[in-house]
Amino acid sequence: MTLKLGAVFENSNCLLSRRTRYQFLATFLVNISTFAHGIGVGWMSPVMRDLQTTQSPLSFSVYVEEVSWIGSSLGIGSIIGNLLAGLLQDRIGRKPIMYALTVPYVCFWLLSYFAETVEYLYLARLLAGITGGGGYIVLPIFISEISDDKVRGRLASMVMLSVNIGILVGYVLSTSVTYYTAPLFIIPLPICYFISNLFLPETPFYLINNGKFGAAEKSFRYYKNIKDDDKSSILEFEDIKHKLTKENGLKVNALNYKDFLTRPALRAYGTAMVLVVANQFTGTFCFTTYLSDTFALSHTTLDVSMCTIVIGVVQIVGAYTTTLICDKFGRKILLLISTLGASICLAAFGCFIYFAEIYDLSAVDWLPLVILSLDIFMCQLGLIGVFFVVLVEVMPAKIRSAAVSTFVVILSCTVFVALKIFPLCMQYWGISITIWSMSLFAIASFVYFLIFLEETNSKSMLDS
């Protein structure tokens, strides 16, 4: 039994193999931040519905227009976080940005706890968005730069897995403890995250690009778990150093506008833009944020809190499935299954709600939960689960940091737009037309990925 277990750990594809175990440990530690962020997002969804009632846990109630601003403030904050992280990560490093994520997140919970007017909640969600926006820039790049090619997809996809686990915990917290008790459970998390990350070195890529070759070699040895007396493996480091210094010219051949206009770059922009649009306008994050409202309008008699928790579990199952299979089957097939499946589920969900307004469908009032669960699973399988993996991998190495940062800013802009208009669309258009519109975005994305997307599985981080 011991020999069999040892053989598993020695398999190069195992995340706990000797070569990759520190990469897995580092990924786990940095994702404490995304887990905590997910808790804040999940907790706020049921709370926003409570705030619209006379039983509001705060001293005031809010209206639909104010709810749309509370929801969309996250997107504004994400844009700020994206810009700050994108501008600073190549100047001061990945680690300082990762440390800084704790500050706005703690402020989010403090403002939520001491809220006296709706403006407190606007600012709280803005700060939560800064944490999420900064994290979505720096964490996928950090994880990709410390990971082996064979496990990079699984490790990078853990960003969304940890967010989804956090969202489920947030759902449970909102229904299990009082409004003023939840912050007391969560504030210790960012503190633990800050302390645990003190022991992780900066990425070898960043250190090489800044001419710190000694520190880069130590970082490389740490993340690859290579002993100091292992001379053969260090040839791999020398090869990476040679390619990076040749590609970037080590500050001699700086970036210029022509680097952003090459054929591979332009092709990557098209893929990235479709990824962004499909990620947001298929409605998955809107459902996560306004889940209680969506179920309340879907003509189901099931308990809304129970439905919310079921969806949270489905998100985790979908994200975890992605971490298991994305390196085995590739990114393209997951995106194709995801977009086609989401389109079908959204069309079916819209049809159910449309006919439920005309006929008595109480005998199958469980159907909205089943259909929406399938939709969430399909989106998590590809559009959400491998979003950051593909976004990082499609970009040419020389412009990767700047290009990824730019498209995550664009993503945050679409987050703001989607969260702002979703409750308003449901109110003025009706939920059926809103859902059918999302289905059209999904099928259009499927067609694009089928024709134009190139597989990036096992692509070297040094390739263009």
From TrEMBL:
The chain crosses the membrane at residues 24-47, 67-85, 97-115, 121-143, 155-173, 179-200, 268-290, 302-321, 333-355, 367-390, 402-422, 428-453. InterPro entries: MFS_dom (IPR020846), MFS_ERD6/Tret1-like (IPR044775), MFS_sugar_transport-like (IPR005828), MFS_trans_sf (IPR036259), MFS_Trehalose_Transporter (IPR050549), Sugar_transporter_CS (IPR005829). Keywords: Cell membrane, Membrane, Sugar transport, Transmembrane, Transmembrane helix, Transport. It is found in: Cell membrane. Pfam families: Sugar_tr (PF00083). GO terms for molecular function: sugar transmembrane transporter activity. It is a multi-pass membrane protein. GO terms for cellular component: plasma membrane. Residues 26-457 form the Major facilitator superfamily (MFS) profile domain. It comes from the Eukaryota. Its main location: membrane. PANTHER family: AT22075P-RELATED, PTHR48021. This is GH11267. It comes from Drosophila grimshawi (Hawaiian fruit fly).
